[in-house]
Amino acid sequence: MTRSSETAAPGAGATLTTRRAESDAVYFSLGTGAVGGVYGLLVALLIPALGLGGDAPFGPFAAIGSAIVAAVASTLGYWRARDRPGQEWRRELPPWKYIVNTVSVVIVHAVLAFLATYALYRVLAAGFIGLPMIPFWAVVLMAVTLGLTVYITYLSAAHMDTQRMSTMLMAFVVIGVLTSMVTSPDPQWWRVHFSRLGTFDDPSSLIFNGTLIAGGLLVTTFAVFISHDLTDAVQRGVLTRPSAPRVVSTLFVVMGVMLAGVGIFPFHTNPVLHNVSASGMAAMYLVLLFSGPRLLRGMPRTYFVVSWSYAGATLASLALFVVGFFSLTAFEIIVFALIFGWISMFIRFLGVTRPTR
């Protein structure tokens, strides 16, 4: 008689892999917490007058540490997840493509960890003005900060899929752009144009341009996951056009390259290539919108209704800009928001085409 423990229940592989990922995340976070404690002690001993705020704030050191451990944790999590049920297809990617995908995932996790940690300690510094950072608290806070960063980042990378990546893309771009806005040396930047944020020789412009470059890299990675999901939908007969995965993923890759180009060529250094990149990204968005009814036949009808709504909103914004109702900055921000809003909506609808497991 077969023992019950030897009978594999449905979803047992996925459950086992999830448990393993949770266990790995806990062990990695505990180890990183110990390393973080040592790092915090060194910072406290080597930096005079260390405090939550002031001339020697603790936050930047914690943010740098978080970015480093997030990069390591996301690399491990994303690489080890290739054996997770449903992710085996990633092992079949060409090496160069897998490397690019990994680099983009790592960059986004590292930057998000840096910005989140830095913002957290800026808030704490505002609430504890003048509080000195003695070695004991430096050890405790650094250990907790880096340990939690590794735990969250490892699980995020280990469970990466199309919808999670779309959420990360939105969060990354929004946080990066908002950070650039609030740290810009020109508080009246919005009177010129959106790209004005990337024209200064200071960290705010570095954040803005870097966000666009890394965001473009992430969109190209995003295209790989979209291609896989669309191929699965074609094989199951949900989508009727076999060319959909190749065409849609290619358009997303071009969109990613154009988005990166906006950051690589700031307006004040090369306005021609900057504008070509921005226009190219918008053009790919419009092609994806207007080719949808033919290219993505089989998607839910509601998807096409919403897509036409996005197209209508884009054209209406253009008309209002032409007649002078919108400023250039307002028009750019609206179109930027529409593009990323549509991407998120597209991924949501693509997700509901998956079979129930």
TrEMBL record:
The entry's keywords: Membrane, Transmembrane, Transmembrane helix
Pfam families referenced in this protein's UniProt entry, alphabetically: DUF998
Transmembrane segments: 25-52, 58-79, 99-121, 133-155, 167-185, 205-226, 247-266, 272-291, 303-327, 333-351
Signal peptide: none
Superkingdom of origin: Bacteria
Coiled coil: none
Keyword Membrane: yes
InterPro entries: DUF998 (IPR009339)
Protein name per Swiss-Prot or TrEMBL: DUF998 domain-containing protein
Species this protein is from: Microbacterium pullorum
